[in-house]
Amino acid sequence: MLPQTMWLNKAVEEQLQTLKGKTGVTPNVAARIAFFRSVEKGFVFDRNADYKLSGSLKLDKHTWLGKTQMVTELMLKQRYPEYSDKELHIAWAAHVEDGVSAIRNQKSISNFLGCL
Questions:
Q1: Number of domains in the chain
Q2: Does a structural domain hold residue 114?
Q3: What is the pTM of this model?
Q4: What is the pLDDT of residues 32-54, one digit of tens each?
């Protein structure tokens, strides 16, 4: 389903790196939280949108998703049943971007945990 190597939009990567500097939460863990926040709030990705994956932080699927891999892939497949694997990857990245907006301004780990 999702490719073995995945990456995000450059701006999202930078936000995740900044968040790591402030809170210590690694980009992959923050990306997981952002993805589920986005799904929870009802964001729906439009595959006709011109969304570019321009980042340089390329990690394997297991590192990005960890123990949430199966749930993440099932949620994407359920929400976007007609999407190709590549489109699902882009949808995942768009969900992370949407969800990171809610957590990117946290200034400490205690603030970060309070927003969850």
A1: 1
A2: no
A3: 0.91
A4: 999 999 999 999 999 999 899 99
CATH assignment at residue 43: 1.10.1220.160
Match 């780990």 to its residue by tokens: 109
Domain that holds residue 19: 5-108
Q: What tokens appear for 3 in the block?
A: 């490719």
**Per-residue pLDDT tens for 50-86?**
899 999 999 999 999 999 999 999 999 999 999 999 9
Residue 115 falls within a domain, yes or no?
no
